[in-house]
Amino acid sequence: MSEQVADGRIRRGDRTRRLVLRRAVDVASVDGLEGLSIGGLATELSISKSGLIAHFGSKEQLQLATVRAARAIFATAVVEPALQEPAGLGRVRALLENWLEYSSDRRFPGGCFFARAAHEYAGRPGAVRDALAAVDEEWVGLITRTVVEAQQVGEVRADVDADQLAFELTAYLDSANLRSLLLGSAGVYDLARTALARRLEESAP
Amino acid sequence: MSEQVADGRIRRGDRTRRLVLRRAVDVASVDGLEGLSIGGLATELSISKSGLIAHFGSKEQLQLATVRAARAIFATAVVEPALQEPAGLGRVRALLENWLEYSSDRRFPGGCFFARAAHEYAGRPGAVRDALAAVDEEWVGLITRTVVEAQQVGEVRADVDADQLAFELTAYLDSANLRSLLLGSAGVYDLARTALARRLEESAP
DNA sequence: AAACTATACGAACGGTCGTACTATTTACTC
DNA sequence: GAGTAAATAGTACGACCGTTCGTATAGTTT
């Protein structure tokens, strides 16, 4: 409740923190969360290394804050607009289409932040990896639940395995994201759209 | 032709080079090609940094050699056994199944070497990125051509878009690889197998 | 035996990394 | 105004980075 105290000192800190994280998510989407460097970040933003790290405590905490910031951007760009759609097949389509635009519009310069980061940490333990795994499960879980909702309103056949369908749909997304970056061509997004449309048609009642 | 000169000096060098690369591909599959460190590699192998780098010239050359070594391992594990199968749907299935085993058996400790490395370099230019993009195109191209062959022998419908099908099939593979690492569960490979089988059945004449 | 070549070594280079500790500046309270 | 708290800056540290250099060793050639 008493959040809007408007203490100028704290506001200044928040502003700096946001400044750092805005840059950090972009850098990390290209160079990875390991590629984040405190010195490099500070130089780019014309602030001191010590002043920067004082906001986060350690590099790992900075990385975790960067994951949270990226999640917020993702939620705003992809999830929230889709939740305007009524539950059902339309909402599933909105989530998938928003994702493709989030990727192809390069909301992060390196494509999907989470695809980049998840592959970076998939093979080794730690808090960062756990955070990334949680976001991934959250996203796939959202697709799965939205598919189940679409079944409940009769827009997806009841015998469809929602987990299976969510796996395949998200697989198309990730593949289009990577290949568009690797080939430097946006044509793969059409392959993904074709695959998504076909797979959803097959699931219609 | 005159390759088997058996010069003891060169044999010793080849042995060291192979030793380095065998370790390098494993390290890179977990920590990435950027995570390769000359000093770290040298320490693990009980050789000197300078002796190690003398074989490759620079870190980037070491990275490129690591990509080539990983490609050779991949070819041996996945491609060559499948080419024993006669051209057709069986060969397509063999390629896909071999890939799943290559991933789930952790032929590289960090899962698929190329998934890890491609995401690492997808967003930035350079020779390493180009090499990884080439391997990716080679792999997807192989799937596509094998599908076309299957069409020619009448085991896949002629109206199937081979590029589209290859996109979807490889998408399942990559997704299973990543999620198995992230979730620490092998169950996603079954999702991939189900998706692959279904998609191929749909393409049957 | 002498000349040559490939491999491997140890030491040092300039840089950058993350982090800790110590001012200094800025903003608010009383 | 003095006092306090938060944000920022400055400095230094040890560790590691990739790379270069000169040198020693092992193997081949003449």
What does this entry look like structurally?
Two copies of one chain form a homodimer. Chain A is mainly alpha-helical and 205 residues long. Chain A is built from nine helices and no strands. The first copy, chain A, has helices at 8-31, 38-45, 49-53, 59-82, 89-104, 113-121, 127-152, 162-183, 187-202. The radius of gyration of chain A is 19 Å and the shape is elongated. Chain A starts with 7 loop residues before the first helix and ends with a helix. The first copy, chain A, binds a DNA duplex (30 and 30 nucleotides) through residues 7-10, 12-13, 16, 37-40, 47-55, 58-59.
SSE order and pairing:
The structure is a homodimer of 205-residue chains.
Chain A: H1 8-31, H2 38-45, H3 49-53, H4 59-82, H5 89-104, H6 113-121, H7 127-152, H8 162-183, H9 187-202
Chain A binds a DNA duplex (30 and 30 nucleotides) through residues 7-10, 12-13, 16, 37-40, 47-55, 58-59.
Structural features:
205 residues, homodimer, 9 helices, elongated, DNA-binding
Structure summarized in a few sentences:
The structure is a homodimer of 205-residue chains. Chain A is mainly alpha-helical.
How many strands, what sense, and barrel or not for the largest sheet of chain A? none
Q: Using the CA coordinates, give the radius of gyration of chain A.
A: 19 Å
Q: Give the oligomer, counting copies of the same chain as homo and different chains as hetero.
A: homodimer
Uncertain regions of chain A: pLDDT < 50 for 5+ in a row? none
Overall 3D shape of chain A = elongated
